[in-house]
Specification:
Length: 189
């Protein structure tokens, strides 16, 4: 009977540790990596980064210039269950075990426009609310940009990669629901 009690105590301790670790990864912070060249020169392909999920957990709105990880499946409503499913489907351990590399649905981008902002591109220059924007972080002048004025809807952000000519972003996908921001970039390691 004593051994059963010890085993049960171990199982409970392990379950608590797993629950705490999972809570940290789902709601506090997560390690991930950059896939592709769309954020160069700021972030490079295969850079390992730490993202904070505290802001999304607390409902803190992103600011212009923040680097965020987004869920590009904007047609899909994200819910609490998605946090668990996505973590187990799109993490490095699942990839190592199965050998199946999932389609990249989580993208690293920079917030350019906030809700209510009016964006316009003139001769490769970005204007927000009729003011030209200095973007020292971009790799080179944009070759392609929308030929229309874009108003960012409430509850959305407009995101772009720093390597504008190699980035699939809000210029193609449209504005991203704030609920699709998975985390905020903290550091590269």
């Amino acid at each position: 009977m004593k051994i059963v009690k010890q085993i049960l105590e171990w199982v409970i301790h392990i379950a608590i540790c797993v629950a705490v670790a999972l809570s940290v990864v789902l709601f506090v912070a997560q390690f991930t990596y950059v896939e592709g060249h769309s954020m160069e020169p700021t972030l490079r392909d295969k850079d390992r980064i730490l993202i904070s999920k505290v802001q999304t957990t607390l409902g803190i709105q992103p600011k212009r210039g923040d680097i965020v990880v987004i869920d590009s499946r904007i047609y899909k409503t994200r819910n609490f269950i998605d946090l668990f499913k996505d973590y187990f489907r799109y993490n490095i351990i699942a990839y190592k075990i199965t050998g199946n590399k999932p389609d990249p649905v989580f993208l690293v981008k920079r917030v350019i426009g906030q809700p209510g902002d009016v964006l316009e591109f003139k001769d490769g220059q970005l204007y927000i609310n009729n003011e030209p924007v200095s973007e020292p972080y971009i790799r080179e002048k944009m070759v392609w940009f929308p030929n229309k004025v874009i108003t960012v809807p409430e509850g959305h952000v407009f995101v772009m990669g720093d390597n504008r000519n190699e980035s699939a972003d809000s210029r193609q996908m449209g504005s991203i629901p704030i609920s699709h921001i998975v985390g905020f970039y903290l550091l590269t390691f």
